[in-house]
């Protein structure tokens, strides 16, 4: 296969879809890889490293796309980038939310151009596809980084310290949503010495939280029926939501840092921290709302901004994985590599089978049609 990697053009995007390590493996398997010059620069992957891995460099996106069978990106292409994709090629990128007007327009355009668009967000959550799952790998980065942001904004230490200048008690952290990002946030906060509690609506999360040494808040509220067949949480009914809010309100006042990661696929983030709850928190406490991207778990979160209310700092960072671009790209690239191996025959030819469980779930356009 001839695979092209484009330089990201979206604001705040520092990742690259394939790193030199992944390129080396593709080239060893007989594929041709073309990298747009500077594509990895913001992730500390130099053009020279790609060349050493066996890739060819192209001066710009147009040159990289020429003759490409697969084009790999992190973010969805702009209209100008989409216009460069060869007829019959496969685009691999984050393409959601495809439901937005802009997203629908892009898909119609790609279908009309005969491009098969594979959305990385749609990798099915099955064991076989785990190593292609960018949502998981990037959530790991986000959970880790959220704790570091909170730690550096806090006016106090996280660990317990016993020093000649006095003893320091450990910080108390609450993690809301114990999925991939939340579990990584728990592990990171524990490594820094905080005493960690966590809450999730899925019963399966309880054991995972406890195995990381954190306390599970309001275990009675985490019900087996809260999980969908895909392993995600379903939206809560009004009475369940009220009980959840009461449990969080009971725990949040004593917290120094709150990392909120709760999400429902395709829906706005559930509101778990109200303005009244923030008013009960200690001045100097910090909330990092990882769910800011989908509106935020805290009522006072402003996506992309840091605000202060009642002495509490509320951060709503966007695209957290991009702020740790080297490792985020290494993990993203490994996911894309595994997907490309899945799309390749033993002889190295592109095989696009939309009846396949993985490829079919990811294909938003194929054969000139937009698929649902
Ligand atoms: P996500 O990003 O959609 O949601 C994050 C967390 O928020 C989830 O744990 C969810 O239960 C929780 N949540 C939703 N509403 C909530 C509420 N009102 N209050 C508190 N918490 C709420 O999910 P995710 O982290 O991407 O994945 C969730 C789970 O799916 C993982 O923990 C894992 O078990 C499973 N998973 C499986 C695979 C696989 O098998 N390949 C891959 C990734 C994840």
UniProtKB/TrEMBL annotation:
Biological processes, Gene Ontology terms: NADPH regeneration
PROSITE patterns: ALADH_PNT_2
Keywords in alphabetical order: NAD, NADP, Nucleotide-binding, Translocase
Occurrences of domain Alanine dehydrogenase/pyridine nucleotide transhydrogenase N-terminal (ranges): 4-142
Enzyme Commission number(s) from the entry: 7.1.1.1
EC category name: translocase
Pfam families in the record: AlaDh_PNT_C (PF01262), AlaDh_PNT_N (PF05222)
Any one of the GO CC terms: plasma membrane
Gene Ontology terms, MF aspect: NADP binding; oxidoreductase activity; proton-translocating NAD(P)+ transhydrogenase activity
CDD domains cross-referenced by the UniProt entry: Rubrum_tdh (cd05304)
Keyword NADP included in the entry's annotation: yes
Keyword match Translocase: yes
Occurrences of domain Alanine dehydrogenase/pyridine nucleotide transhydrogenase NAD(H)-binding (ranges): 151-316
Superkingdom of origin organism: Bacteria
Chemical reaction(s) catalysed: NAD(+) + NADPH + H(+)(in) = NADH + NADP(+) + H(+)(out)
Function: The transhydrogenation between NADH and NADP is coupled to respiration and ATP hydrolysis and functions as a proton pump across the membrane.
Matches recorded under PANTHER family: NAD(P) TRANSHYDROGENASE, PROTON-TRANSLOCATING NAD(P)(+) TRANSHYDROGENASE
Family membership: Belongs to the AlaDH/PNT family.
Protein name: proton-translocating NAD(P)(+) transhydrogenase
